[in-house]
Write a structure and sequence with these properties.
Blueprint (H helix, E strand, L loop, with lengths): L3 E7 L2 H11 L4 E8 L10 E3 L7 H12 L7 E4 L2 H5 L2 H7 L4 E2 L3 H8 L1 H11 L6 E4 L2 H9 L5 E5 L8 E4 L2 H13 L10 E5 L4 E11 L1 H5 L4 E4 L4 E2 L2 E3 L3 E4 L4 E4 L6 H21 L4 E12 L2 E8 L6 H5 L7 H10 L13 E8 L14 E2 L1 H6 L2 E5 L2 E4 L16 E4 L3 E9 L2 H13 L1 E2 L4 E2 L15
Parallel strand pairs: 1-2, 1-4, 2-3, 4-5
Antiparallel strand pairs: 6-9, 7-8, 7-9, 10-11, 10-16, 12-15, 13-14, 15-18, 16-17, 18-23, 18-25, 19-24, 20-23, 21-22
Bound molecules: adenosine monophosphate and glycine.
Length: 460
Amino acid sequence: MTTMKAIVIGSGGREHAIAWTLASSPDISEVVCAPGNGGTATEPKCRNVSVSVSETSEVVRVCSAELSGLSDGSFVVVGPEDPLAAGLADRLAQAGIRTVGPLSRGAQLEASKDVAKRFMDKYGVACAKSATFTEHADAIAEIRKHSGPIVVKADGLAAGKGVVVAPDADAAVDAVRDFMVESTLGAAGRKVVVEEYLEGEEISILAAVSVTEELAAAGKAAIVPFVTARDHKRRLDGAQGPNTGGMGAIAPATGVSEETLARFRSDILEPTLRGLIAEKFDYRGFIFFGVMVTKDGPKLLEYNVRLGDPETQAVLPLMDFDFSKMCAAIIDGDVSSFDFAWKEGVCCAPVAVSRGYPGPYEKGHAIAFDHKKIEGAGAKVFIAGATVDQRRSPRGIGEPQWPEGTLITTGGRVLAASAVGKDLDEARSRAYSALEAVSFDGMSFRRDIGLPGAAVSKGF
Ligand code: AMP
Ligand code: GLY
């Protein structure tokens, strides 16, 4: 019997999807979710362990304890960016633990917009023109040279609140004042990047990365992109309302031509790979390219050093290979020869959110599931913001998926219903039937995930 364990760091919908996918591998005997959530709590082969993800030493201690005595290929997958930027992968490597996730030097590509833009410029990655400022007066002077929409980005990690796509110079100046004078984001906003506004439709390209000096010398350093995906950032149907962490995703993204993909490879992926090699990064994990498809071709908006949320919930169900074997290939440097095969069809994953989201939102509501209906729809519900309340009995209709108690909402984004269909219509119809079989007080969701125009930002 195999005794290979996988440990998944994080507590969102992305981590539930990763844990569920790993648990389906015959190679994996147990998935430890640190800390996981109400969804991973009773997933077969999964077990939650309590840990604070921001406490690097504690995470390393928990991982070491979980993996001690196991002499096989057990490994850790780090879900979110903050622990990577804080050096979790470095500390795990020092402890001899096999880890999917870049060392902190590579993680700066997401943690600092300035570092990312310098890297893009240095290696000729197609992107928006930009300049970085440490003095607010200089940033404002630059903004005043332009008319029309312009983008202001806080340099540091700001949980999705650090980018303002301003319709005009006045709004951009307000953003600079908020970040640099009022310090609304603390240290993250001390430096800002002022960037050209790009028009187009966005796609998310997640990729497996294996780059080290040794792999580069052997000609085996590689970035292998997954099927494309599209997030839907605005809160309301028709791409209206405030920006959110993501209201749903589809994969593959619609309307992406072969030519766009070829340009993505030549103008974004290949220069990025050359840069990772030239900078001598030890980067074994995931890169998520946030790309705007403009009339002049695809341009990189940002690097994320992890998988996307909710893109992961739409991409992983299309994998026709063993995720745990891919993780081993990332760690061992075999990504360039790994057989990435994808299922035919489309996956749609709309997200249900709490009343109030993305502002202050309600918590503590019990979630009811009609499991038979969800199963009948051929969908999988990935939990993002909910926990098991052991004091309450299950509220599911039919077989309870959460036998230990009721699932209680704890987050703004609560869950995603993810379904694969032969085409977008079928995937949408399955995913939405599953969402209709879930209910909690104040629940709402967008009804247009995947439809034409649903992800195009309007409003200027
Ligand atoms: P980022 O964190 O850099 O991806 O920015 C968050 C979101 O802001 C992106 O997903 C885009 O929707 C938008 N955005 C960022 N940069 C630009 C840009 N240069 N032009 C237009 N929209 C942008
Ligand atoms: N879906 C956007 C992100 O994960 O950052």
